[in-house]
């Protein structure tokens, strides 16, 4: 089964870095996401947002995570033997995302290992950064992804 995928566990090498994606975040994008999922005033009300520490409208951190996930899927995850993830070690919102920001992702492979309980699967610890057009890190997160091995054998 795993042999049909472009990326399997063996393709993720510790130290490997890749950058991908380009997504401009519009005011409408920010407000639509926030109205549905995170309706705090600094995400949905331009005038109220001016009175906050952000001094204007900003995207929800959860929206930034969702945008990162989409770029990760488009770049490699949908072409991989991914079996999901046991979760994140951390997520940090380092810098607000504002209307007009152009975001991309930098992914670094931190660690790889075979799963003890399921040796036909491997774990990959990844560190992802969401960068804006000024190369500033807006969001960073780290977590594990489970991939099938190419041959599917233990």
What does this structure look like?
The protein is an alpha+beta fold and 154 residues long. The protein has helices at residues 27-37, 41-44, 46-49, 61-75; strands at residues 17-24, 87-93, 102-114, 121-131, 137-148. The protein has a five-stranded antiparallel sheet, with helices on one face. β4 and β5 form a beta hairpin.
Structural features:
154 residues; alpha+beta; Thiol Ester Dehydrase, Chain A; 5-stranded antiparallel beta sheet; 4 helices; 33% strand
Subunit arrangement of the protein: single chain
Strand content: 25-35%
Percent of residues in helices: 10-25%
CATH topology: Thiol Ester Dehydrase, Chain A
**How would you sum up the global shape?**
elongated
Total helical elements: 4
The domain count comes to 1
What would CATH call the class? Alpha Beta
Any low-confidence stretches, pLDDT <50, length ≥5? none
Mean pLDDT: 96
Widest sheet: strand order?
1-3-4-5-2
**SS-derived structural category:** alpha+beta
DSSP E strands, number = 5
Alpha carbon gyration radius: 18 Å
For the largest beta-sheet, the strand count, sense and barrel status come to: 5 strands, antiparallel
Order of SSEs? EHHHHEEEE
**Could you tell me how far the N terminus lies from the C terminus, measured between alpha carbons in angstroms?**
14 Å
Write the layout of secondary structure elements.
Elements: E1 17-24, H1 27-37, H2 41-44, H3 46-49, H4 61-75, E2 87-93, E3 102-114, E4 121-131, E5 137-148
